[in-house]
Fold Inosine/uridine-preferring nucleoside hydrolase domain-containing protein.
Amino acid sequence: MAKKLVIIDTDCGIDDAQALMMALAAPNIQILGITCVYGNASVENVCQNILRVLSICERDGIPVFQGCAGPLVGASSSRTDHFGTDGLGDVIKDKDPRWKEKIQREHAVDAMIRLVSENQNRVSLVALGPLTNLALAVRVDPCFPQKLKDLYIMGGNMEGKGNLTLCAEFNFAMDPESAYVVLEEFLCPTYLATWEYASRNSLTWEFFEELINQDAPAARFMKTITSKCWAYSREAMMKKRGVYFPGCGFVSYDSYAMAACVDGTVVTESIECPVRVELQGSMSRGMLALDRTNTLKKSHKVFVLTKCDSAKFSQLLLESLRQPCNK
């Protein structure tokens, strides 16, 4: 069976690294390229983080492209310390001074357009960060979305509950205009793994301990980068995320979108409806609105994921940290 062709657009923080390793471990996935965008860290740190993950998994041959360093319009939003200042928990001291030589010279947006044009209707695009690169791609090539097979997004929210602002999820809040453009103009089949979807399908903290204590380089790497990160503290998350989702356990946000791409049967329920991103509200800017009553009269609908098969998802996570297989 032919492998599924995938481009991963990422602002590589810890959960992006986990999602990337899930794709690297999947036998049915061929990664054509990885495009980097600002978000969890500066785009320069994102590039370095991706290179480190590929090195850990001994997959250095996958091309990495540097993309947008800020939002489509306006000034950059201030980043949070959710995954540390470098995106990987601020525990890695030995930086690669020659990392720029390992990044492709082609801009991420140009690479995205080229790779999809060379493989029309065969590429799945998985977007794990702010959607700036995608929005710019459709501005450069208005036909870009119709050349995609499908699009998987980690971002947005279903109920107006925010994790960066009062009403907006991080990726959409970082660049609301780009999120708006993508969800209005990308008419390919689109799957949204929202903040609530990930949080409501959390795994136990006991599973997290099992996950990172496997005897493999990728697991040891994940254990290291989560070791001092408050976002992987059970106590911290009970006080923060637990306000909205009592009893919520371990959540690897970006992995939920990646799992849907790797194995569609992981998703057991979804809502198919039009959506729109709010741009004007003083408290709701960046919030995703679900139009379940067809008030907006939009013809295009997206799949907003709601429930997943926890056993299948857990297995994909476990396999993702057993890399490389010969070590």
In short: Residues 230 and 236 are 6 Å apart (CA to CA). The chain has one domain: 4-320.
